[in-house]
Design goal:
Layout: H1 3-18, H2 55-61, H3 80-83, E1 92-94, H4 102-105, E2 112-115, E3 118-119, H5 123-136, E4 149-150, H6 158-164, H7 167-177, E5 181-183, E6 192-194, E7 205-208, E8 214-219, E9 227-228, E10 231-234, H8 238-247, E11 256-258, E12 266-270, E13 277-279, E14 282-284, E15 290-297, H9 318-343, H10 350-368, H11 375-385, H12 387-395, H13 410-429
Antiparallel strand pairs: 1-2, 3-12, 4-6, 5-15, 6-15, 7-13, 8-12, 8-15, 9-14, 10-11, 10-13
Helix pairs in contact: 9-10, 9-11, 9-13, 10-11, 10-12, 11-13
Bound molecules: fe (ii) ion (FE2).
Fe (ii) ion (FE2) binds next to loops.
């Protein structure tokens, strides 16, 4: 082929890519909107230069499903320009500093462990959040782990919903953690509030690791109004902490650290599934309130918890929890399909067409699944979202069927199907919590 022939061929290929024709397998199959964005495959490290939280991806998290029975989103609206005053922390702890080795940290999406305290809210933001927390306190309940907790504040307050889903906040958290983070796809997780128990001998929250990967803990009470209630973390690995607590009832004093002054409107971000932590008892003062927002990495990585019973706190309404779990697992399966499509963007194959259709259906579940206590309807929605992919696997010579998962992209689709299978089992069988803590 002559040089001019090569140039013509390259130009033609580029024009195909630009028109997205590489994904067009017929008039009914349009490119999934996720492909318009740049996705990194799971476990690939985050690059700030390539960082993007597009409106498209963010919108997908704002479920259009109506609120579950008994919930009403009320109160003032949240405005980023008015209520946020984001600053950067002066301290950042890496997982290696807690004793984690390179082999372990490289299996995670980032080696970020914990930040120091940094400002999040403006004076007006602090005042409005405080009013909303006062308004919602009557909905607080006692869970097996936390004596007084409010769940799903995002479903009861317009302001809290806006704060939880703030794009500026998510971008700030992503830069800090060095991996792209988004608010948790389960709305019941968003706007979690811990209150100090009336009994001063009880810890606000016991020693534990989180079942969600990243949490942002915002201090809501002026520190001069209480004594105790310090956020404390263990300088060691999760395995060490759990081994020590199995053989004794306390962690060594010299290996437990405090995060410092807990100013109102300031927060810490941590990879909570990898940092053992607790909140000490409040010795004096009526109030000590924190606002906790979980974030999940779009890069997925190894999950700290993939069974609903292991993250079920025993008090969430199942009408809310089960659809939220189904939605979250569909979001995860969707991300896996998107990563597969990204890796096969030049493949005009039947398998690519099937994955494309599956991604569209999963995206639809994420955005529209209604709140319901009908377990079988949820299982049907989950199963139908991957029906084409499952049929393809069962009737073709796909590498997924034959278990060739060793680091290949087939592992992404096997993981997507496994995620949905597990979710179906969870929504049909959840009875009680199996969450473990010391
Ligand atoms: Fe926690």
């Amino acid at each position: 082929m002559t040089l001019s022939g090569i140039l013509v061929f390259v130009t033609w290929c580029l024009s195909l890519l630009e028109k997205k024709q590489v994904y067009a397998f017929g008039s009914a199959c349009k490119p999934h909107r996720g492909l318009m964005m740049t996705f990194a495959a799971p476990l690939r490290r985050f690059s700030i230069a390539g960082q993007q939280l597009t409106g498209l991806r963010f919108r997908a998290l704002q479920s259009s499903a109506s609120l579950p029975a008994g919930f009403a989103r009320e109160g003032p609206e949240f405005h980023e320009h008015l209520h946020l005053a984001l600053e950067h922390p002066t301290r950042r702890v890496k997982l290696a500093e807690l004793g984690n080795n390179q082999a372990y940290t490289s299996s995670l999406v980032t080696d970020f462990a914990q930040s120091g305290a940094f400002r999040v809210l403006s004076t007006e933001g602090i005042a409005t959040l405080s009013q909303e927390i006062d308004r919602l306190e009557r909905f607080a309940v006692e869970s097996p782990r936390i004596p007084r907790v409010l769940r799903g504040g995002s479903m009861r307050s317009r302001f809290i919903h806006g704060l939880c889903h703030s794009k500026a906040l998510a971008v700030h958290m992503s830069e800090m953690a060095q991996t792209e983070l988004i608010p948790h796809p389960m709305e019941i997780m968003n706007g979690h509030i811990n209150f100090a128990p009336a009994d001063h001998t009880l810890t606000v929250d016991r020693w534990h690791r989180d079942t969600v990967q990243f949490v942002f803990v915002l201090f809501c009470t002026p520190p001069e109004e209480y004594e105790g209630g310090e956020f404390e973390f263990f300088v060691g690995t999760i395995a060490e902490a759990e081994a020590l607590l199995r053989t004794g009832d306390v962690l060594p004093r010299n290996r437990c650290k405090l995060i410092g002054r807990q100013e109102t409107g300031f927060a810490v971000l941590q990879q909570g599934s990898e940092v053992y932590h607790r909140v000490r008892p409040v010795r004096k003062g009526r109030k000590r309130t924190t606002f906790v927002q979980p974030f999940v990495p779009t890069n997925l990585g190894r999950e700290p918890c993939n069974r609903l019973s292991d993250t079920y706190n025993g008090v969430d309404s199942l009408e809310c929890l089960l659809p939220d779990w189904a939605r979250y697992r569909c979001w995860r399966a969707l991300r896996l399909c998107e990563c597969w499509l990204q890796e096969h963007r030049l493949a005009a194959t039947q398998e690519a067409n099937v994955v494309q259709i599956t991604a569209e259906k999963l995206s639809n579940v994420v955005e529209t699944l209604p709140y319901t206590s009908d377990r079988h309807a949820l299982a049907d929605a989950l199963n139908s979202s991957v029906a084409e992919l499952r049929l393809h696997v069962s009737t073709s010579h796909s590498s997924i069927k034959h278990g060739c998962h060793n680091g290949s992209s087939a592992a992404l689709l096997a993981d997507a199907l496994g995620t949905i299978d597990t979710a179906v089992h969870d929504v049909l069988t959840l009875r009680e919590t199996t969450m473990t803590y010391f």
